[in-house]
Amino acid sequence: MHVGEIEVRRSARRKRSVQVRREGNRTIALVPANLPQAEADEVIARLVERLERRERRNTVSDADLTDRAAELSAIYFNGKAVPAAVRWVSNQNSRWGSCTTNDKSIRLSDRLIGMPIWVVDYVLIHELAHLIEANHSARFWSLVDAYPQAERAKGFLEGVSHRQG
What we know:
Layout: E1 6-11, E2 19-23, E3 26-32, H1 37-57, H2 62-77, E4 85-89, E5 97-100, E6 105-109, H3 117-130, H4 138-144, H5 150-164
Parallel strand pairs: 1-3, 4-6
Antiparallel strand pairs: 2-3, 5-6
Helix pairs in contact: 2-3, 3-4, 3-5
């Protein structure tokens, strides 16, 4: 939820770190005075994106994800896929989600935050299907492909991955 311009404040006392924060409706970037502009722009963009993901994450709680997973399990798996926990994580940069079948936990990358709900639902369904079929067998894909938006969501995520890669 980027609001307005980013105000860059350079400081001779700041040696290495760059910090981004909100002050009301403004985004403030605190930058070392000697940091080259191109490098500052790159770091600021990355930090603003992280800040915005964190802000969006606060609007969709882990409890909301758990509730949505239960709804999707009821619709697509007759309630047979029952995760012990569903939560957002910020440490998945190459995966959209993961499922640990031993403890039945599902984790979704916070990079999904702000994407269309049918994309998030697809990733949830993919991970829920692992609670029924642990591998990526034909049976697994038949479970996932029961979701009407599966192909569309796969294409969407491939496009996002291509753009980021």
